[in-house]
Task: inverse folding
């Protein structure tokens, strides 16, 4: 049977939540990944040194062993330099949300006035703290990411020493931005390598495929696949796995988020194998992130097998993508 080995997989964009959800969900990622960038959009968001230390402790208490590193983030505000210096050793990045654009982002940024942001972003540049951005405007839902490209341009040119990560990109427009500015990078989810809008609302409405940014057009999917499959050095895997309880997804006013954490590596193997690019998966799922973020994860070896795997119908009440469906790869062993 065909197998494929991955070393130190990293998930560079992950939602773990808090409380019982955290306890149930964090072990799923800790099992197969060496580390993950942890999103700060709790209620209330993670905005202080005390918050971030305490949240990291709760995450470590929820995972069954020490072989998992939560790379912590705080929620962007126009912080001053003294604060950033005090928190720099505890965090790997700062996550910026436009206000109200997605789940728990109400306290985000309501104006992208570069001069107002300058003190914070210059301090982040000096302290080498990367800025992760949820790049969507409040425009028409299919155009939100493309419309945000002008904000990326002005951030990238105004702060040339700031590492800016375009999170969970979904469009050809974002792919094209990567080569325009040295300081722009991107994460790509596994669901955006598989879905278009048709898989969300083209037939029956599929709430478990609904997320922000929403899956786009076939040509966008092709652009994402192209850049991921060749493991372009400026792209990294970031699942954006976003657990919500079943009743929050299967309801009117369905929450945004696709839950992929326990099947992400299996799906990535399936996609890369389908295009005969398995040799590039290690770079996409770990090596690029190590160079971009300058991190050295704990050793972990994951062996995957090319055999059918039936995705469970839920994980502690959270419905995964492809629930009850059969996918082509399974995790065989983790060391
Ligand atoms: O679909 C999403 N869900 N997109 C986000 O940006 C946030 C996430 C969540 O926290 O549920
Ligand atoms: Zn996210």
Result:
């Amino acid at each position: 049977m065909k197998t494929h080995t991955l070393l130190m997989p990293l998930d560079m964009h992950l939602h773990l939540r808090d409380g019982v959800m955290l306890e149930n969900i964090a072990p799923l990622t800790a099992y197969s990944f060496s580390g993950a960038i942890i999103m700060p959009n709790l209620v209330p968001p993670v905005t202080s040194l005390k918050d971030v230390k305490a949240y990291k402790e709760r995450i470590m208490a929820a995972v069954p062993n020490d072989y998992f590193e939560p790379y912590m983030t705080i929620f962007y505000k126009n912080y001053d330099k003294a604060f950033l210096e005090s928190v720099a050793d505890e965090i790997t990045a700062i996550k910026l949300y436009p206000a109200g654009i997605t789940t728990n982002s109400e306290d985000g940024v309501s104006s992208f006035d570069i001069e107002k942001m300058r003190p914070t972003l210059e301090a982040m540049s000096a302290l080498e703290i990367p800025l992760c951005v949820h790049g969507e405007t409040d425009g028409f839902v299919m155009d939100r990411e493309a419309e945000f490209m002008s904000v990326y341009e002005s951030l990238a040119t105004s702060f040339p020493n700031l590492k800016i990560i375009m999170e969970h990109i979904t469009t050809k427009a974002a792919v094209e931005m990567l080569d325009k500015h040295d300081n722009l990078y991107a994460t790509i989810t596994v669901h955006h390598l598989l879905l278009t809008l048709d898989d969300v609302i083209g037939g029956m409405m599929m709430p478990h495929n609904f997320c922000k940014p929403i899956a786009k057009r076939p040509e966008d999917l092709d652009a994402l696949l192209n850049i991921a499959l060749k493991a372009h050095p400026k792209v990294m895997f970031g699942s954006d796995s976003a657990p919500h309880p079943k009743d929050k997804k299967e309801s009117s006013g369905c929450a945004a988020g696709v839950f992929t954490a326990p099947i992400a590596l299996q799906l990535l193997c399936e996609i890369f194998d389908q295009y005969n690019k398995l040799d590039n998966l290690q770079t996409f799922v770990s090596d690029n992130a190590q160079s971009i973020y300058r991190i050295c994860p704990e050793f972990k070896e994951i062996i995957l097998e090319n055999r059918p795997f039936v995705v469970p119908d839920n994980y502690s009440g959270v419905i995964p993508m492809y629930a009850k469906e059969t996918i082509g790869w399974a995790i065989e062993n983790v060391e």
Summary: The CA atoms of residues 67 and 298 lie 6 Å apart. The first strand starts at residue 3 and ends at 7. Residues 13, 15, 39, 240, 242 surround zinc ion (ligand 2) (CB under 6 Å). The domain at 3-334 is CATH 3.20.20.140 (TIM Barrel).
